[in-house]
Amino acid sequence: MNSPALLRSALCASLTLSLSAICFAQQAAGPVAASAVPASSSGSMFMVVLLLIAMVAGAWYLKRGGRLKGAPASELKVVSAVAVGARERIAIVEVAGKRLVVGITPNQINLLSETPAPAGFSESLKQAQETRNA
User: Fold this and answer.
1) What residue intervals traverse the membrane (predicted)?
2) Domain residues for 43?
3) pTM
């Protein structure tokens, strides 16, 4: 499990435990009239609410700080893949302006072919206009 998922799980678990403790404490105390609630009970409820707010604010801060973001965008892009056996695949991978055709087995990856990556639509349109005007 990666670090962001572990942190999210820990936050969810602590939130669940806090809410469970509140429910258990209320059930153990039994029903009481609103005017008969002692000051210490309202003070502890305030602390629990404050704790929950702090947990949410901390998660928001970590996410905004980049610690919970996913992996950075990679230059590696799998364009297509097809299974050719039970555990074997052939994939077309685009990296650094090239397209690589690779064979993938459980034990190794072999380069089968290498070609330049096709130009994007805007580049193809520009080239077509240039050849038409020439």
Assistant:
1) 44-62
2) 3-64
3) 0.39
